[in-house]
Q: What sequence folds into this?
């Protein structure tokens, strides 16, 4: 290799691609609204494919509409190295969440191609389907199906708020693809690396451009339906009411009190739907979400028991249905990949530090089928899932420089 691969990372090109992709679903406030499996995401997907084809990458997809761009290796029979993230966004998303991982991986492979190099094993840039879960809950659908955590039939039955089946949305996206063949699930993977903005303040506060992600904290997600009975707000006595909203409020308040200790327990009730949602009618139904996270699996498990006890204790004359829709234990990433990230940062004279991921990512699923790791870069104020989400161009470039060295090392490991 006559020139170090990291020196061939083109920061201007990488930044321009971020800005170009942000136009797909761009909001007037500078943010991005690009729902998973939507026509606008399909257009963004086509743009990523076009960039890949320009440098000779071959696109593939699968039954979950995961997108892969393959740089063939010298030995096509060896399991490939995957790098990437996702391109769907929250309704009030920013320009960098997920997208940075896909575009950094594309830039890293671009640098390898520009150097005239070919790795021993293939490298595939990947954009996973429905990481965010804002349209179809829960998220990480594509990586779940790819790794066998869920079946394709299971996820195809998910519906969005408009009643659209996830399976129909997948079929629509696949029908929009042009000359992109389908591949079967169950492929063996050599390793997976996911670059991402931190979505937290640690790196920025420390003035450190690269985070070596040690692991991801555990999470449980629930949906709670409280069923009561409608009644007239002026005539129905309080003692005779089956007020679903008041029961839900008691539940939420009690769960919140339970989650106060330890202080780093993350409890979020981000969705509350009331029926019939009329000012003078006692609510007959309240439907709400619970998102629970903590690095210690024992604490998450203890809170699980508390949540189940509280919803029964506080339902009063109403009925309650509690459904856990996701359980993901805390995990620690591959020590070998963490060492490669640290070594690559040092080789490029880029300061790095260990950080822990409070948010979930597709690398959680990949961790169970292959060595996996993550590279974090700072984001301003730790803000994400917000139009104000921002990453500095020099940090994006630094992340891609570290990534190219890591995936080159992984892709040249013998079988």
A:
């Amino acid at each position: 290799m006559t020139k170090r691969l990291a020196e061939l990372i083109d920061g201007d090109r990488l930044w321009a691609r971020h800005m170009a992709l942000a136009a797909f679903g761009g909001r007037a406030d500078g943010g991005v609204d690009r729902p998973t499996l939507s026509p606008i995401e399909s257009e963004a997907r086509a743009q990523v494919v076009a960039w890949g084809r320009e440098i000779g990458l071959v696109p593939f997809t699968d039954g979950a509409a995961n997108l892969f761009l393959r740089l063939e290796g010298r030995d096509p029979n060896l399991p490939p190295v995957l790098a990437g993230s996702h391109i769907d966004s929250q309704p009030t998303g920013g320009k960098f969440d997920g997208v940075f991982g896909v575009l950094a991986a594309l830039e890293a492979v671009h640098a390898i191609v520009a150097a005239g190099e070919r790795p021993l094993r293939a490298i595939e840039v990947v954009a996973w389907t429905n990481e965010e879960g804002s349209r179809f809950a829960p998220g990480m659908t594509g990586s779940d199906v790819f790794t066998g955590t869920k079946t394709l039939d299971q996820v195809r039955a998910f519906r969005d708020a408009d009643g659209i089946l996830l399976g129909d949305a997948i079929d629509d996206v696949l029908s929009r693809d042009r000359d992109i063949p389908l591949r079967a699930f169950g492929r063996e993977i050599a390793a997976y690396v996911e670059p991402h903005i931190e979505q937290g303040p640690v790196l920025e506060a420390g003035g450190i451009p690269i985070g070596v992600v040690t692991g991801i904290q555990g999470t449980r997600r629930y949906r709670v339906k409280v069923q009561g009975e409608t009644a007239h707000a002026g005539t129905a006595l309080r003692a005779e009411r089956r007020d679903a909203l008041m029961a839900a409020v008691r539940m939420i308040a009690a769960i919140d009190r339970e989650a106060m200790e330890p202080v780093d327990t993350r409890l979020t009730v981000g969705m509350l739907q009331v029926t019939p949602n009329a000012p003078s009618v006692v609510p007959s139904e309240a439907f709400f979400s619970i998102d629970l996270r903590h690095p210690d699996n024992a604490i998450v498990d203890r809170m699980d028991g508390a949540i189940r006890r509280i919803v029964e204790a506080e339902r009063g004359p109403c009925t309650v249905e509690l459904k856990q829709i996701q359980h993901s234990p805390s995990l620690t990433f591959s020590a070998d990949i963490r060492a490669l990230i640290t070594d690559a940062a040092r080789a490029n004279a880029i300061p790095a530090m260990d950080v822990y991921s409070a948010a979930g990512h597709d690398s959680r699923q990949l961790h169970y089928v292959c060595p996996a790791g993550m590279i974090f870069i700072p984001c301003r104020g730790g803000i994400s899932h917000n139009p104000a989400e921002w990453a500095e161009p020099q940090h994006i470039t630094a992340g891609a420089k570290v990534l190219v060295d890591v995936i080159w090392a992984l892709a040249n490991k013998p079988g």
Notes: Residues 218-328 form a domain with the Alpha-Beta Plaits fold (CATH 3.30.70.360).
